[in-house]
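4.2 Preliminary Data

To establish feasibility before requesting continued support, the project team ran the inverse folding procedure on a target of 199 residues. The structure was first converted into the token representation described in Section 3, and no sequence information of any kind was made available to the design step. The complete token record follows.
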């Protein structure tokens, strides 16, 4: 159990009480998972409606698909080896084309402070266009496929497409992702979780 007086626990309490975006359509509810021993960091975009309702990150079909890509079950995913910090920590609401982008003020406010409390991270998964634009500095549009194709170039960062069902066409158009990238990703994750040395 986490020490309630540790710097990370105190920071998480501060994050979870954030009210910086009072105009969020369903109000602030920051959703983040972090443990000081975490070895794999998952940076997604922002919680969806179901995640907002339950308060559990990736607790939806996108999460099921992501766990399949990683080769981990729910117990492992929600255990201390994984930290989960979306680019925007609260549900931003939805528009005609799906969920809105993460709130722009969120990552500059919280990400670096949270990341500083995670010294054991060995792999950072950067999921979706908004997360990649912020954390990898790539264009917000049209960069996901080249980013994912060049995952090996990013070293300890691993760009991924969003596992949402809205991306089924993207996945169908890029069969190399499932055939080549997913097995390599699974092997890297398994090695890190087993404590093996990886590049
Ligand atoms: S989106 Fe981020 S900055 Fe805005 S209220 Fe939620 S935690 Fe705070």
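Position-by-position output of the design step:
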């Amino acid at each position: 159990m986490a020490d309630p007086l540790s710097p990370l626990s105190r920071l998480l309490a501060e994050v979870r009480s954030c009210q910086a975006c009072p105009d969020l359509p369903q109000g602030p509810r920051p959703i983040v998972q972090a443990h000081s021993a975490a070895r794999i960091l998952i940076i997604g975009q922002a919680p969806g409606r179901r995640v907002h309702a339950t308060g559990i990150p990736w607790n939806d079909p996108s999460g099921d698909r992501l766990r399949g890509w990683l080769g981990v079950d729910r117990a492992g995913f929600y255990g201390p080896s994984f930290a989960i910090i979306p680019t925007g920590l609260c549900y931003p609401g939805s528009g005609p084309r799906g969920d809105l982008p993460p709130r722009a003020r969120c990552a500059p406010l919280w990400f670096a402070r949270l990341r500083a409390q995670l010294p054991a991270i060995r792999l950072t998964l950067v999921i979706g266009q908004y997360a990649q634009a912020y954390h990898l500095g790539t264009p917000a549009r049209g960069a996901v496929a080249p980013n994912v194709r060049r995952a090996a170039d990013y070293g300890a960062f691993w760009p991924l497409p969003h596992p949402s069902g809205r991306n089924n066409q993207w996945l169908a158009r890029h069969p190399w992702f499932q055939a080549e990238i997913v097995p390599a990703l699974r092997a890297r994750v398994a090695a890190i979780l087993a404590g093996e040395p990886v590049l």
